[in-house]
Design a protein that fits this description.
The structure holds two protein chains of two kinds. Helix content of chain A is about 75%, strand content about 0%. Chain A contains 15 helices and two strands. Chain A has a two-stranded antiparallel sheet with strand order 1-2. In chain A, β1 and β2 form a beta hairpin. Chain A is globular. Chain A starts with 5 loop residues before the first helix and ends with a helix. Chain B is of the alpha/beta class. Chain B is built from eight helices and 13 strands. In chain B, the strands form three sheets. Chain B has a six-stranded mixed beta sheet, with helices on both faces. In chain B, strands 1, 2, 3, 5 and 6 form a five-stranded antiparallel beta sheet that branches. In chain B, strands 8-9 form a two-stranded antiparallel sheet. The longest helix of chain B is centred in the C-terminal third of the chain and has 16 residues. Classes of the chains: A mainly alpha, B alpha/beta. At the A-B interface, α10 and α11 of A face α2, β9, α5 and α6 of B. The structure holds adenosine-5'-triphosphate and magnesium ion. Adenosine-5'-triphosphate (ATP) binds next to β2 and α1 of chain B. Adenosine-5'-triphosphate binds next to β2 and α1 of chain B.
Chain lengths: ~325, ~250
């Protein structure tokens, strides 16, 4: 037990400066990289467009990414543990529609809408967890199946809701909160609060530690006495809850239950991966997800201001994801 | 009157899709005994200790702890009966550091309700523990992925020492160790014995087995072929059992 710390033993350490190697080896090295790219993108768009660098525009970006961000925060926990949820978009629709349908009737309380919508979402997430852990179905298959089931059941029930007039409900999506001279959109605050909660869980709690541990070596965790199946079911349930909450915020934003969110699980998952979470689990931090979500939002907004059409925006978004993952792959050879 | 065995198996069998990994094995281990479990590759040694650790369920037969039958469904059940195991593959999380692995499943909290981890305390206790065990590592904050084979083994060992079990199971603990580290480990086994712990140690190294054990059990193709007091046998005889089985 006298071997040297292997930082010095690595062949590449000789070629790369030591501080850089230390930085790249950190659990959160992606965060620094993303921060750099994000700042570069902001500088670029500020130079290119007079409308970009402005608090109103910043909040536009924030509002645009908040729905994805809320769902992505919980998806990050799940994905660090090695899980995957492709039913997020379907859950968002089901939840948003349920909440809106309830709120259309002025007799109903907002608490009822939340309880029903989140109850449905949690139940779907819980079912995903049971199918994956107790039956052992691959998460991709299980949650794609669930996506179809939920989407079909949602559309079979209602294709949409009438307009919601309840002020409190609309505030969730459209409101602003004055902090000093800034009018911060409520969805942005909700996203930041969700991210903060997930950050604290990952950083300071036993649950957070076990999320990383399970993502790396689930059988070792079981042997250490940890209830791995229970953890997994809880994480799928949380992913469902996060998606359901995002769906409610989306319904508040659009003022009705319209199944707009189909397919948004791919935006969520790509933001999480852009943020440094690996599909095989065990790595990633919530700050990365926040930056991933923001980077996508900044790129889309900036390109729109520069009149770049939506098709090319998609090309850029996909390329950024592929570049980020490729760089991460290269990093692992250090 | 004989003392009550700590652990006892009766007709214990385990099948894997037609493969008989363990066939009607009955053993009995007394408190404070150090038992060596030997046999060729694939003899069923790991299978037997995984059943005792709650990591595998038997296909047939019984496990008794302190004379009463138990049905371990999860390693947690065995841990609750103060059985701790170092698995052959060590069962460490590469992405966690030494302290986090040592305390995995045994965390200390700053706030028990919210399960907020008391990391400072756990780092301090890990350092103390490693010092007591005469284990040297670069830092308790080093990630396991950066450790050598011996340092990993040391981490797994520290975890077991930390848990403070009554029955300690070591599956090939010296496999990745150098000369000094092996010495250190055998000394540690003797210290565990002095503390009155019961130990099952699996090893292919006859010298190590004869140095620390009171009794040697030989498995061959899943069957128990010999159960000898160490003082009444010799390495040649044990090797003969390993190769040829029962006479
Ligand atoms: N999970 C499993 N699935 C299928 N077969 C298994 C499994 N685990 C063990 N076996 C088989 O059971 C037999 C006994 O394996 P075991 O690991 O107990 O041997 P061992 O004595 O520990 O060997 P070694 O000295 O190589 O560690 C082997 O034939 C092995 O292939
Ligand atoms: Mg083995």
């Amino acid at each position: 037990m006298t071997a040297q710390p292997s930082a010095d033993a690595s062949g590449l350490a000789v070629r790369l400066p030591a501080p850089l190697v230390t930085l790249l080896r950190r659990r959160d090295s992606n965060v620094f990289f993303l921060l750099f790219v994000l700042v570069a993108a902001i500088v670029f768009f500020t130079i290119q467009s007079p409308y970009f660098f402005d608090d109103r525009n910043a909040f536009n970006i924030g509002r645009a990414v908040s729905i994805t961000g809320i769902a992505a925060a919980f998806a990050t926990l799940l994905m660090i543990s090695g899980g995957l949820d492709l039913s997020i978009g379907a859950i968002m629709n089901a939840s948003g529609l349920a909440a809106a349908v309830i709120m259309v009737d002025p007799e109903n309380s907002i608490i009822l809408a939340f309880a029903i919508a989140l109850g449905i979402s949690a139940f779907i997430g819980f079912s995903n967890g049971i199918i994956v852990t107790k039956i052992g179905v691959n998460p991709i298959i299980a949650t794609i199946g669930m996506q179809f089931v939920v989407r079909g059941m949602t559309l079979a029930t209602r294709s949409g809701s009438a307009l919601v007039r309840d002020r409190a409900f609309l505030e969730i999506g459209q409101g602003e909160l004055a902090i000093g001279t800034l009018e911060i959109p409520v969805p942005v605050i909700l996203m930041l609060a969700t991210m903060l909660l997930c950050y604290l869980v990952l950083r300071f709690t036993q649950f957070g530690k076990y999320i990383y541990a399970i993502g790396d070596n689930a059988s070792a965790c079981r042997r250490a006495g940890i209830n791995v199946a229970g953890m997994r079911i809880a994480l799928y349930t949380l992913s469902g809850l996060g998606a359901g909450f995002a769906g409610i915020v989306l319904a508040g934003l659009t003022g009705a239950g319209i199944p707009y969110a189909a397919g948004s699980e791919l935006s969520v998952i790509s933001a999480v991966i852009l943020g440094g979470v690996s599909l095989s689990g065990g790595v990633g931090v919530i700050q990365g997800t926040l930056l991933g979500v923001l980077l996508v939002g900044v790129l889309k907004n900036g390109m729109t201001l520069l009149n770049i059409n939506a098709n090319w925006q998609m090309v850029v978004e996909g390329s950024v994801l592929m570049i980020a993952v490729s760089l991460d792959q290269l990093k692992q050879r250090i | 009157m004989e003392t009550q065995p700590v652990v006892e198996t009766k007709g214990l069998s385990r099948y894997f899709k037609g493969v008989v990994a363990l066939n009607e094995v009955s053993v009995s281990i007394s408190p404070g005994e150090v038992v060596g479990l030997v046999g060729d590759n694939g003899a069923g040694k790991s299978t037997l200790v995984k059943i005792l650790s709650g990591d595998l369920e038997p296909s047939a037969g019984q496990v008794l702890i302190d004379g009463a039958e138990v049905h371990f469904r999860h390693p947690r059940d065995a841990k609750n009966r103060q059985i701790e195991t170092i698995y052959q593959d060590l069962a460490l999380c590469e992405n966690l550091d030494i302290m986090e692995n040592v305390f995995l499943g045994h965390e200390s909290y700053r706030n028990p309700l919210l399960r907020l981890l008391d990391r400072r305390r756990m780092y301090r206790e890990t350092s103390q523990l490693l010092e007591q065990l005469a284990i040297r590592v670069p830092s308790t904050r080093e990630l396991v992925m950066n450790l050598s084979g011996g340092q990993r083994q040391a981490t797994a060992l520290a975890r077991v020492a930390k848990a403070g079990a009554r029955l300690i199971i070591l599956d090939e603990p010296t496999a990745a160790l150098g000369v000094n580290e092996t010495r250190n480990l055998l000394d540690l086994v003797m210290r565990f014995k002095e503390q009155g712990k019961t130990i099952i140690i699996i090893s292919h190294e006859m010298r190590d087995v004869f140095e620390v054990t009171d009794r040697i059990i030989v498995l061959k193709r899943g069957e128990l072929v010999a159960d000898k007091r160490t003082a009444e046998t010799d390495p040649d005889e044990i090797v003969r059992y390993i190769i040829r089985g029962r006479d």
